[in-house]
Specification:
Strand content: under 5%
Oligomer: single chain
Distance between the termini: 42 Å
Shape: globular
Radius of gyration: 21 Å
Length: 367
């Protein structure tokens, strides 16, 4: 371990954990945001929920591990970020709680009003975190008031800079597109066709916001002569991925579209982390107040112990999550929930008369 730059290693690990979280939880958020748009009845809504039902809580483990790693490896970063960003992070937490409860409780009563309320919780519990995560991470790079004592010295409005807001729009639009492609990949029939159309529409704001955010990041770095350690290939790959996703969606290639939208998410957030390094938070009060991997990290002994734990535990966790995705790899259809074939109308939509079939109760796979 002595030959390793452990603060740099743990910055890379935390960045990778957040990238994994955004890739996996991104399509969860997208499904929740799009559920009202792609569903025509309760069976459709259950189909949409069942696509993420077996995996959404496992996807959130990435966030828990990332926050825990940040707390242990960079306590100054954790303390400053979680105190300064307290209100948006609290909003994210409450939204995630409401969404998780909604998955569990919406099917407990056969009451349309009861389910409609929980469906709203799923929608807003997906939309709010999708937006605020982009705001929060763009603020890390865009700069917030951090004083000489490494304490946040601003208010909520300091987190809502134009750059941060564009970051929020970029994250929510990318996650929505990612979720639309995931729904098209994981469902059949009318809901898959609606998801395909939603993906084609969602691509435009996702492409525009991604290109705008990456361009702004480049101009900002060029203006301050501060590119961090960003290889040109990373933002270029993000641009190629988001542009390629548009063509793949038009061609109906759901699997490759999902890979492309995922690559766009990874490339965009990787650009942010690489631009940030070796800092962990940029101070708008002056370069001397920046938090870096040096002045915000734990001791070498703590980092060494954490590294050994990660070496032994990470393969087990990754293998288990990979296995769970393999088990639940099949598409979800209305027929699985209603017990009878869907009858398409002339417009290709499932008839309203079928909407009540199998609507009561919770099915296996519905969270």
């Amino acid at each position: 371990m002595e030959a390793l730059d452990l603060p740099a290693v743990w910055f890379a690990i935390i960045a990778a954990l957040f990238l994994g979280y955004f890739f996996l939880e991104g399509f969860d958020f997208g499904v929740g945001i799009l559920m009202p748009a792609v569903s025509r009845d309760d069976v459709d809504r259950r189909v949409a929920i069942n696509t993420i039902g077996p995996v959404w809580d496992a996807n959130e483990v990435w966030l828990i591990v990332a926050a825990g790693a940040m707390f242990a490896a960079f306590p100054e970063w954790y303390a400053t970020m979680f105190s300064g960003f307290y209100l948006p992070l609290l909003a994210i937490l409450l939204a995630l709680i409401a969404r998780g409860v909604a998955f569990e409780y919406r099917g407990k009563r056969d009451d349309p009003t009861w389910r409609a309320r929980w469906d709203k919780a799923i929608f807003f519990g997906s939309l709010i975190p999708a937006f605020l995560w982009g705001v929060a991470f763009a603020s890390l790079l865009g700069g917030v008031p951090i004083d000489a004592d490494s304490e946040y010295a601003g208010g909520v409005l300091d987190l809502l800079s134009p750059y941060a807001l564009v970051g929020g729009v970029t994250s929510v639009s990318l996650f929505t597109l990612h979720g639309a492609v995931f729904l098209a990949l994981k469902t059949t029939g009318a809901i898959a066709r609606r998801a395909q159309r939603a993906a084609a529409l969602a691509w435009w704001p996702a492409a525009i916001s991604t290109l705008g955010f990456l361009a702004w990041s480049f101009v900002r770095a060029a203006w301050t002569d501060d590119f961090g350690v960003v290889p040109d290939i990373v933002p270029i790959a993000a641009v190629v991925a988001i542009m390629g996703a548009g063509w793949l969606i038009r061609e109906g290639m759901a699997g490759l579209s999902f890979v492309a939208t995922g690559a766009a998410i990874l490339g965009t957030f990787a650009t942010l982390f690489l631009n940030l390094y070796p800092r962990v938070m940029v101070s708008s009060l002056g370069d001397g107040y920046d938090l870096t991997i040096r002045n915000a990290s734990s001791g070498e002994y703590t980092l060494a112990i954490m590294t050994w734990v990660a070496i032994f535990m990470a393969p087990v966790v990754l293998a288990y999550q990979g296995w769970s995705y393999w088990v639940f790899r099949h598409r979800v259809s209305r027929e699985q929930l209603t017990g009878r074939p869907a009858r398409a109308t002339g417009g290709g939509e499932a008839p309203g008369a079928e909407s009540g079939a199998g609507a009561g109760g919770t099915t296996r796979g519905e969270a």
